[in-house]
Amino acid sequence: MRERLKFSNINLSDIKGLIFDVKQFLDVNKIVIDEKMFRMVDYLHQNFIGFLTENQSVVIFRNIDRKSSFNHFKYQIQESNFLDYYKISGNNINSNNIVLAEGVFDIFSESIFDSIGIKNNTRLYASALSTSYESLIKSIVFHEQEFKLNVSILSDSNVGLDYYRKIKRFNRHIIESLSVYYNKSGKDFNVTPINPEKFIL
Predict the structure, then answer these.
(1) 23 shares a domain with 41
(2) Measured in whole angstroms, how far is the alpha carbon of residue 25 from the centre of its chain?
């Protein structure tokens, strides 16, 4: 875990919703698991850590072995009307700036190292372990009650700008501005050194 956080001096006990012991988490919370999850519990317990989402409807599991081809898994533990997400609070609760990324470790890296330079004026960082940014933005609007967002997306390199242009075009009523960043050093923002390239849409 510390290696994935680039050995920053963040206190692991302060990380909200962090699950080290998968079996204990399922047992203590009396979570009913389906057949697929039943077959995977031992493997997840030995090889993954989990992050409980903001509204406690999903666990985002991440493999601790970077070399594994099976590196993430999402498990729905209860129904949710909106796409649930993992959230890190920013330094300015009154700001309408939000930073989104596909991966949990992308937002951790950004919240720690501030590669795009807006840490002190950001309301929150969020990840849903998918590129469903339109659904994620709508969910944040609903749960945070903030309606004109300045959105910054830390994009994976395989997602083109046209995808984001469509999101902005169809959501102008809730998006004030949209900036997309790519890391010229790698496929996402957990690859260091981070070298961001910005596009304003």
Answers:
(1) yes
(2) 20
